[in-house]
Each structure stands twice: as C-alpha cells, then as structure tokens.
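In line with agreed milestones, the collection of sequences with tokenised folds has grown. One record among many is set out beneath this paragraph:
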Amino acid sequence: MQVRTDIQKTDDPEELASMLRALSVGHVCAAVEQLRRHVLPGLYDSGVRYRPEPGAGSGVEDFALPMTVLHRGYGDCDDLAIWRCAELCRAGQMALPKIYWRVREGRVRVYHAEVRILSTGRVEDPSRLLGM
C-alpha cells in the first residue's frame, strides 16, 4: 500500500504539520497491522536501503508501508521511519515519526522524518543508519 499526497495544497505551516502528523500516525497504525499479519524481517535486518524519493522536493510525497518498501528494496525517510515506528510499537515501545520541513520561497520543501521513542525521548534516524 502506498499513499500519495500533495504537500503544496496548503501554505499554512500549522495546517501542513497537522496533515503530515495525521498521515504518518495513520501509516504507523497500518504498518503495525501489516507487521502483525505478515512475517517480515526487522527493518535493519531486511536488506532495505535508504533512497531519496523520486522527484524529491516536488511537493508530492508518497508514504509506503513495510511490505512495499521490502518488495522494492528501498525507502525514503518517511517510509523507513514508519516501518521502524511500527516495529517498535509491536515490541511495546510507543514511537512516532518526527517530521521536519522547510518553507522556501513560499513553498514547502523537502522534509525529513526520524523516529521519536516516546518513553525515552530518544530520536533515531533509520535513513542515516541505512545509507543516507
């Protein structure tokens, strides 16, 4: 499963933040369910590598679930963060994507997603660990 969204639909940074949080939390829930239903390796044992999204910075973002990422062998920062958050949640550690973006020339530009482990506040960057 993959969802595409146009992050250029809003110029309001707070609205954008809400939209990105909702998309990422929804995808973590879907990824938890996917991990529950299918036997998948852990993200860091999967052989998956980081690869920037085609057309990065275009304002269109695809959010892919773990099976899609595993099948194609790569994911961008949000794909990897979603998988890692789901994996941690399945293990009993609440985690959510931590999302960054910039507004330049009135447009939202490339953002980055990491993993925030809620119980400890620790931040993990699966993209960096997988070749970014």
Residues 13-37 form the longest helix (25 residues). Helices lie at 13-37, 66-72, 77-90, 126-129.
